[in-house]
Amino acid sequence: MVLVYLLTGGTLLKPKTHLYLYINDATGLGPQSPVRVDGIGVGVVDWVKFSGSKDPNRIIRVQMTIERERLPSITEDSIAQISNDSFIGDKFVDVTTGKAPGHINENGELHFKAQPDLMRSIDLTDFEHQLRLVDDTLADIERGQSPIGQFVVGDQVYNSMRRRFMELENSLKTAGATNAQIGGLLYTDAMYRQIRAPVLQLDRQIALIQSGQGGLGSFLRDPAQFQQFRSMLQDLQKTVAEVRNADFMKSGESYSGWSDTVASLARQVDEINASRMLNASDLYEGWTGAAREMQRNLKDFRENPKKYLRLKVF
Q: What are the CA-CA distances from residue 206 to residues 70, 202, 226 (Å)?
């Protein structure tokens, strides 16, 4: 009894229960066929018999022995299928659990989902054509006619790849040289110094401000300057308030007086523009003629002064 217990893996004395399954075809399925739940073995098939039902999907009844402790892992909406490990392997009951919260009860029935027969779903003519294409591809590889064949048989692809890797290596060496820009960044501290200089300058300026040096530093640390600036702002605010409270800003009398003065000046300018002196041409021509007569007399006087200077003796 101990030997039997050890050979059965300690499962001989565990409590068992039965589950049932109705299928349409039991080809390859028989007693002692494995029962797996999500790929884990939980029991075996007891027997496969005709059910006596006229339903084409319930012709065969399968009784399975399941370990009772495995029932909580089989949900109510679990699906059972007849599967096999390979084309020629033995078949087994493959149970896929669902998402229902409850589990199947003892002596319960699993839902069956038929799988399509692989050989029935394959078009043999198309399958043969695909096999011929695969055979032609392998033949091209063996003869070295395709790129893969050239890589396998010849060394042209290998040499091309090797040449490209050498070019990449030379490019990396060139970039890594100290006289190149990238190499200078990698092996020298020029970029580091270029970035570090403004940071140090900013740090020094902040330190000067914190120590109270400079205009901004003294303004931040000396409350007297702040009070002086505040007093200036208050004086400016008072000046603005006085301007707003002035008579000119609060009443319209000054504005009316200025407006009347400007209007009077405008009227005087209009009167001057409308006067006879600016608009009549005879006055202008008279003044012009008199000026020309005076010009001629002065010219004659300069040329013959004796004509106008006459002395009379008593």
A: 73, 6, 19
**Rg of the chain over CA atoms, in angstroms?**
59
DSSP secondary structure letter of residue 103? B
Q: What angle do CA 186, 187, 188 make, to 5 degrees?
A: 105
**Span 289-311, pLDDT tens digits:** 777 888 877 777 777 776 665 54
Query: How far from the centroid of its chain's Cα atoms is residue 310's Cα?
Result: 114
The tokens 């109270």 sit on which residue? 212
Domain boundaries, the chain: 2-116, 200-245, 251-302
- Under the banding of pLDDT at 50, 70 and 90, the label for residue 48 is very high
For residue 29, count other CB atoms closer than 10 A to its CB.
19
CA angle, 101 as apex, 95 and 105 as ends, to 5°?
Answer: 60
**Are β-strands 79-84 and 91-96 bridged in parallel, bridged antiparallel, or unpaired?**
antiparallel
pTM for the structure as a whole? 0.36
Helices (H), the chain: 2-7, 118-121, 124-143, 147-153, 156-176, 181-187, 190-210, 214-221, 223-245, 247-250, 253-274, 276-279, 281-303
